[in-house]
């Protein structure tokens, strides 16, 4: 695990790192051809199956809150066609790991093809387990990003964080940042939760 040991370099700001990830992985590459021409619009775009590719400013806000560093192991829940997952891969770099889960098989297929084209082989998208939220068999994670709206705090995902890890998730229209404590105060129920504004997403389907 790398969370406690990964330290930002002087001048290494989350905004700059996120902007670099956006530049490296243009949104249009991950959109269906029918909406690719709308990639520059700051709004959600349909990717099929009642799912959307999220609004770029919303994605940027979430990635800045997540504060991902090189070498980390990260999870995205609800990865769609892989755009945000590819940017997470850029943020963790070749020494890190980026895993995404997606419940719709055809989006998993499309997303993995997109990741191959994006040249980030340390990222992978897997079909979500219908009986488990997240990827408990792959835990713990330094960072978890939830790209769908939860009806309640997903505590099973908090438990998949490493001590000191961070989760960003929209819950009941509010963006939540969850920080799990360090030992001996790393009980998931004692995680520190802060709110960061109102947002809208497609709903998170929980097992």
CATH topology (level 3) name: Rossmann fold
Helix proportion range: 10-25%
Highest-level CATH class: Alpha Beta
Dominant shape: globular
Low-confidence stretches: 1-11
Can you count the helices? 5
Radius of gyration: 16 Å
Termini Cα gap? 27 Å
By secondary-structure content and strand pairing, the structural class works out as alpha/beta
Record field, number of beta strands: 9
GO cellular component, one term: cytoplasm
Family: Belongs to the methyltransferase superfamily. L-isoaspartyl/D-aspartyl protein methyltransferase family.
Protein name: Protein-L-isoaspartate O-methyltransferase
Keywords: Cytoplasm, Methyltransferase, S-adenosyl-L-methionine, Transferase
Give a structural overview.
The chain is an alpha/beta fold. The chain has one domain (14-22, 52-198): Rossmann fold (3-Layer(aba) Sandwich). It has five helices and nine strands. It has helices spanning 14-24, 56-66, 83-92, 105-118, 155-158; strands at residues 45-48, 51-53, 73-77, 97-102, 123-127, 141-146, 161-171, 174-179, 192-198. The strands form two sheets. It has a seven-stranded mixed beta sheet with strand order 5-4-3-6-7-8-9. Strands 1-2 form a two-stranded antiparallel ribbon. Helix 1 (14-24) crosses helix 3. The chain starts with 13 loop residues before the first helix and ends in a 9-residue tail after the last strand. Residues 1-11 have low confidence and may be disordered. This is Protein-L-isoaspartate O-methyltransferase. Its EC number is 2.1.1.77. It comes from Demequina lignilytica. Belongs to the methyltransferase superfamily. L-isoaspartyl/D-aspartyl protein methyltransferase family. It is found in: Cytoplasm.
């Amino acid at each position: 695990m790398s969370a406690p040991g990964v330290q930002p370099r002087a001048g290494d700001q989350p905004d700059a790192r996120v902007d670099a990830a956006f530049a490296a992985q243009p949104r249009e590459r991950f959109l269906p051809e029918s909406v690719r021409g709308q990639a520059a619009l700051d709004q959600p775009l349909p990717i099929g199956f009642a799912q959307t590719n999220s609004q770029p400013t919303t994605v940027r806000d979430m990635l800045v809150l997540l504060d991902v560093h090189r070498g980390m192991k990260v999870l995205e829940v609800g990865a769609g066609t892989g755009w945000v997952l590819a940017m997470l891969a850029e943020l963790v770099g070749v020494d890190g790991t980026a895993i995404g889960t997606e419940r719709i098989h055809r989006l998993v297929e499309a997303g993995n093809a997109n990741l191959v084209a994006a040249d980030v082989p340390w990222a992978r998208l897997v079909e979500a387990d219908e009986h488990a939220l997240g990827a408990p068999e792959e835990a713990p994670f330094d960072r978890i990003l939830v790209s769908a709206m939860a009806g309640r705090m997903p505590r099973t995902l908090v438990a998949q964080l490493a001590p000191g890890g961070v989760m960003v998730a929209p819950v009941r229209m509010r963006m939540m940042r969850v920080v799990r404590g360090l030992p001996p105060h790393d009980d998931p129920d004692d995680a520190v939760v802060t709110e960061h504004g109102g947002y809208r997403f497609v709903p998170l389907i929980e097992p």
